[in-house]
Amino acid sequence: MNNNREFLLRRLHSLLGVIPIGLFLTQHLIVNHFATQGVEAFNQAAHFMANLPFVIFLEIFVIYLPLMYHAFYGLYIAFTAKNNPGHYSYMRNMLFVAQRYTGVFLVVFIAWHVFETRFQVAIGAGEADFNMMENILSNPLMFAFYVVGVLSATFHFANGLWSFFVTWGITVSEKAQRYSTYFTLLVFIVLSIIGIRALFAFV
Amino acid sequence: MGEAAKTVIFEIERQNSTDESSYWEKFELPYRANMNVISALMEIRRNPVNMDGKKTTPVNWDMNCLEEVCGACSMVINGKARQSCTALVDQLEQPIRLQPMRTFPVVRDLIVDRSRMFDSLKKVKAWVPIDGTHDLGEGPRMPERKRQWAYELSKCMTCGVCLEACPNVNDKSDFIGAAPLSQVRLMNAHPTGAMNRDERLNAIMGEGGLADCGNSQNCVESCPKGIPLTTSIAALNRDVSIQMFRNFFGSDHMVD
Q1: Which residues contact A24 (CB under 8 A, 6 or more apart)?
Q2: Cβ of A140: how many Cβ atoms within 10 Å?
Q3: What residue of A is the nearest CA neighbor of B168?
Q4: Alpha carbon of B11 to those of A99, B55, B97, B102: distances in Å?
Q5: Which residues lie in coiled coils (chain B) (predicted)?
Q6: Which of A156, A167, B29, B242 is deepest in the core (most CB within 10 A)?
Q7: Of B202, B214, B231, Cβ closest to residue A96
Q8: Which domains occur in chain B, in start order?
Q9: Whole-prediction pTM
Q10: What is the per-residue pLDDT across B37-59, written as a single tens digit (0 to 9) for each?
């Protein structure tokens, strides 16, 4: 019999990257954007999200488990590639390499981000509000770290969305894949603007 | 004395056998008009003296058709995998660096063993089974326009350039690479071959199959025959998505 375990794991990795992780990322950045409307607006939005019914289950099944699977299996994928952007410097190959670098960086960034915000709240060492982010981002190094983190995330999602369309056989023709590149570029730009605007609202 | 004759400099990564480590050797040879990498290698074979003036062993390489249809003379030339028969010296930056395609086991110097590609073709059943105990008669007809399209896919010469260019084909992964995958699309497009399409689709859903593609698209950029490899891969992705649901939710027949 055929062993298609690897096939299913790869397909699951692709699916989870978009649903739910990509959707969650979009939602997260949009909620953050409330910071541009002032302290009150952000706190209200953060409070609403933190007090959703069954929030811990939502977090576990929509965020933690899919994200951890995507992260750890992604590390395996990233480290089984032998990047060759030097001699084969085509656009898609550059994006292939960037997808792997941003992915590895995001594992570090998200681990730190969850520890610094969600974990601190869980152990009662703080509250996820405007103040917390203002404190974190007042450090210029941390601010830079978050800017790179947000851009890595939006790039990784947008480019991952492009490969998602190929992996599931949605964009087959060269033309479809080209238009998909334009579309995902737009996703990257829009999400980046939303994310970066929110970061600047805290400083 | 007149001015120095024009020469061509080659740097070749050599290796005596599969298990030995490689070394670089430089050669300087007289320039001739319209020379290609193969004719340069022939010149080195005729007079195997390296740039230090020392006599050395002739450089080994593989070749056959000399018109870019057999794929035997593939090697890495100035960093990119391609056929040496169509690599014209006039179009190459000097020194010209020749290396074996290390994705494959090196037999000697520039000769590699591409057996894994032929094993992959067997694994994915890249053939149309027609043998039986009696004459099965004529198969279904293929529309002419479809035949013309399929002919492009059939140009694959198993040269290995797409595997060499692929970042996901390496010693850490089992990925079979673009060439055998595209052959699955070709065989599945054949009206008689389509009678076994589920077997091929299930084969490429196995270990080292289609899912290992990371969409770097180096294959389609590198393919000397211009085969739309990434379109093949995406089309197979679609076929396999459907086959996956078919396998799971169960249909009582696997072929239309």
Answers
A1: A62, A63
A2: 9
A3: A81
A4: 34, 16, 5, 16
A5: none
A6: A167
A7: B214
A8: 7-112 (3.10.20.30), 115-249 (1.10.1060.10)
A9: 0.94
A10: 999 999 999 999 999 999 999 99
